[in-house]
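Hey, sorry to bother you again with one of my protein questions. I've been puzzling over a protein and I'd love to understand its fold better. Take your time with it, there's no hurry, and the full record follows here:
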Amino acid sequence: MQRWARHALFLLAMPLAGVVGIVHAASATTPARISAALDKADQIKHSDFDTFTRMLQELEQQRGSMDDLAASHLGFLEGWRATWVGDYEKGRGLLESVADASPDNVLRVRALATLINLLGVAHRYEDAFRRLNQMQELLPSVRDPRARFAALGEASQLLSSAGQFDAAEAYAKEMVTNAPEGETECKGMQHLLRARREANRLTTIDPIYLKALATCEATGDTVFGETIRADIGAFYLAHKQPRQAIDVLAPHRDNLRNINYATLLAEFDATLASAYLAQDDLANARRFALSAVAGSVRDEFTDPRRMGYKVLFEVEQRLGDAQAALDYHEKYMAADKAYLDDISARSLAFQLVDQQVLARKSEVDTLNKQNEILRLSNALDRKEVETGRLWIFVLGLSLVGIVAIVLRLRRSQLRFMRMARRDGLTGICNREHFVEQSERVLAYGARSDRGACVILFDLDHFKNVNDTWGHAVGDEVLKRAVDVCRRALHACDVFGRLGGEEFAVLLPDCSPAQARARAEQLRLSISATSATPSRPELVVTASFGVASTLQCGFELHRLLVVADGALYRAKRSGRNCVFMGDSGDIPDSPYPVAAT
């Protein structure tokens, strides 16, 4: 998301078409001169920022002589400048005024595009998607090609960040097809490539992307060209071609410093760090990982920072520095969780705004239908109107009754669905729902070639707890253990109770080493927490077995069987420990899930 800050403003810096002449702002005493000065300032704001700033200061003194359109244009330019220099609060206020009150739809669309960029950078995703919806409603009325071009770029980026890849691709294709005069396929192809890569829809680097990269370099669109290069490098890395990723990125990495674009440089460094690690070049892997972490936006967990910490953890682990590896692993876990939470927030914001838009449309349709009924009723004579009103009243009561019944049935259905999927005591997935969710995640992992791991654990000597303290205390122990584990798990992990004191966790996109570390973290958390508030002296531990798709494949039953064998080995080794499963961990009797 942080790459939006200046990346998008390169698009938004484009002035309106039809600018002619150079008129100094100090002489702007007539509407025509004021308009010409505003157009000139609009034209040079990116190429000559200092002159642009002086012109705005002089134009501000002429605000009293401006009509509504000129004042709105000045407000947009001031808002754009505030956003460019990082004064987001001032920029937001100015841009919202233009977006909501400007008499010119072109200015409103330009202000909305800049505002969407600002809100995305500030992580105000719900507001950003509301403004995107407003801009989408205005776009059909805007014919200015440059304003549309900038708006399409913002829409593509925001929708891609929320996982709406089909819509993002559609906007990017329109940018390529309808590029305004003076523009090339460069910017549109960059948005298209990133949307397809993030959606995992690329199987190879099509020559059209290399052609677009060459076009970007030829026309001086350095930011967009290097972003295409970053996406190509990330594609090679994701498809286990680290040498190609290094060859694409390394020769251009130092030149990237000249454009002073730290967030894009951090993307380069994070990809290079991972590629060098895959090549066992630990020195370069560490160097670029440290650079990626340092170059990321401060106090924000970006993807380059997450990748950098992951590489540093693996480098220190390979070098045998356990303390450094543990420190970096903790930072990686925090960065990974925050990054995934930010992705979830974007997706949730889109869904929320989308539902609000549908609700508003439904309300409008309902009002339109009601107005139509009233119009028809007024055309009838008195008796027909009275009869019609009576029927409408009866129909309304019937509809109210039907809606009430449907809502009640729907609530009951949802309640029963939740009851059917959740364990009644702990609130996590029951066995059937865990199997259903896990098989879905594993199927996706198999298609995308992303490994996963299963952790199987149960509480040690739990029968003694029930026999000694009673089932009420036993239930508290189970709930306490689940609460401890929930705090250590990610939003994308699948956590379920298979029965009794036995639990399972599916970790998507996870290596065996990471799974073992996660299992060890769960084991320590359980043993370090008192079993129940009422029985602090009661100590509860758990034994863990871990299985990975790298050894077992993507069949859930096989994973559970191997994890169960490892769990039994942990119990035979004294309990309160973690064992990794392998092909020899198949117990004599089939694992119970085989009946599912």
Summary: The chain has five domains: 1-124, 143-239, 242-346, 378-421, 431-595. Confidence is low (pLDDT under 50) at residues 16-28, 585-596. The chain has 24 helices and five strands.
